[in-house]
């Protein structure tokens, strides 16, 4: 009798497996991509699911690069319909897509994200320049005696870097290299500061590889602490340690006002206005990409894009701004909205 | 007195002391373990207990047909798209008529949760006659407002709310228009980006379906493998090799099983991503070694005399196993299965690979609907920027711990109740 039971259970399980094996038509939108865009995309998806008859889209936070890989794997309902990215699609990724039959891809810029350098609200508010950040955090810096040569980063306190800064140990908590935020920080802050030395900038035309190695490397002697992908953790650590600074996305600053304060960078505080206008130097664009071949196959894609690009979502007073996304300027938003609703495909020439 | 007795007497005090020290070490280790557990529970309960309550604000809401933009409250389409936020905003403006500027209005509107309109829809759907009437309703407060009422004095000062918003809230509170209620939606709804709307029911259902698939697959397979290896298989190099491999698999990091699932079930067989079915199969691979090992131990513990007696009475080897060995080994096998399941319930790493780490609002209705599981939900909430998610994370951890404690208690109970000694 026991055997019969076991056989029954086993056959039921097998039947269950077989019945669902064919990847049948999907009736919900599948979205992958950047963890920076995730809080915004999920908000739109939830509203879209609540206010229409379509199921709520499913969103996986895979990181920008991971999302591109899944997105470009091919056409067919087992592959995602949309990927979010906190950087533009690379030419190589576009070609990968083309090779796998993902021909028509529509690009939508949705807004901006700022990267903030912040410390505890109890500590002193500081004003940093890109050069300060480069000198404090790069692996190799120009010799402090003024010679045009590189030495291992000798700076121990912020005061060593710039006499106007407080006399505290350099201690910065930030994301690890797998994070899109870190990529952007390396590119905008460290390289931005590096370029202010003309002789370092000159290396770019001679030897691009060496230039990147100098201008995008972060010191590994303990001054920069990789605090994992969890930005909440960084915020909590900053509250406990007023001497430390943290590097993370603007939305975390926005949600934790009162506990932490952001440093001015190049004379500008990170606010909605300074990030949108580009005056605050550490800002980047956020994107999503739509697979046109899936429009009409998976129901609701057009509706989702329409919801995302509606004024009540991405406008200056929209609900995404409440979540900490910085909206595009009015003209750009109008252009982008039109492009998004028509789902104009990319040619590939605009990428590099 | 002999020399030996003298020696014993001299060393006696020392040996007593050593004995005492030895016990003290044991007690200290247990105390350390308990202290760690206590710290964990205090931290989690301290952070999480607030999430079980949420605040509501009382408003005079008029179901105005023009504002709602509908004329027929029995039409489902109209009900779905009606502007419920509009009537709530009207109610707020009537309560605070002094608010005029656009920025201030925005601040006022943000006091009420964006999800407060859905109950209005349900009310209107069940009582179409409400259209055009005014009712006094309790509306769900926004998470920032909720945080504000839950915070102490210092916390209220640090709140994200503006001074005007705080003044309005004080006015509402003084009029008795704010109340705290048990957060039932936490146990009945799926995930949400708004902390006040987010619940764990979706994740609990996902965990249930995943565990169901895991149990249905891993228990029969595991028990069959254990019985064959223990009762029928010849002892040779090949079975030794299998044994080494099973023990080895039990120690393989779980993420490897996720990679395997991604390559084989999703890549090769084309099964959908993010569904409990695939999650359950992957977790089956992970729990199989645990179940096989514990089932073999349970079978080994059945004394050979029982087998020999059955054989002596003319039972076939299959009858011996099914009628005598298996029923006697069942408590041990079940205990192993429950411990394996408890382990699988807390697993996130392999599910990352097969897409179950995702934002899913709709509560799954079966093993092929996209779903996430409890530990993944905890991970996702811990990573969200809104402060209210800190409490929700801890509350979800409490629920997960409750499930784990229940399962482990069941395992202990089964062992105590059904265990036989020979």
From TrEMBL, chain A:
Domain PBP residue range list: 20-311
Record Gene3D superfamilies: Periplasmic binding protein-like II
Name the record gives this protein: Phosphate ABC transporter substrate-binding protein
Keywords of this entry: Signal
Highest taxon listed in the record's lineage: Bacteria
InterPro entries: PBP_domain, Phosphate_ABC_transporter
Signal peptide stretch: 1-25
Organism: Alcanivorax hongdengensis A-11-3
PANTHER family noted in UniProt: PERIPLASMIC PHOSPHATE BINDING COMPONENT OF PHOSPHATE ABC TRANSPORTER, PHOSPHATE-BINDING PROTEIN PSTS
One of the Pfam families matching this protein, by short name: PBP_like_2
TrEMBL record, chain B:
Location in or out of the cell: Cell inner membrane; Cell membrane
One of the record's GO cellular component terms: plasma membrane
GO biological process, any: phosphate ion transmembrane transport
Topology in membrane: Multi-pass membrane protein
Main location: membrane
Molecular functions per Gene Ontology: phosphate transmembrane transporter activity
Keyword set includes Cell membrane: yes
InterPro entries reported for this sequence: DUF3333, MetI-like, MetI-like_sf, Phosphate_PstA
Entry keyword annotation includes Membrane: yes
Pfam families according to UniProt: BPD_transp_1, DUF3333
ABC transmembrane type-1 domain residues: 204-411
Transmembrane segments: 21-41, 200-229, 249-271, 277-299, 320-345, 389-414
Keywords, sorted A to Z: Cell membrane, Membrane, Transmembrane, Transmembrane helix, Transport
Matches recorded under PANTHER family: PHOSPHATE TRANSPORT SYSTEM PERMEASE PROTEIN PSTA, PHOSPHATE TRANSPORT SYSTEM PERMEASE PROTEIN PSTA-RELATED
Assigned protein family: Belongs to the binding-protein-dependent transport system permease family. CysTW subfamily.
Protein name: Phosphate transport system permease protein PstA
Organism: Alcanivorax hongdengensis A-11-3
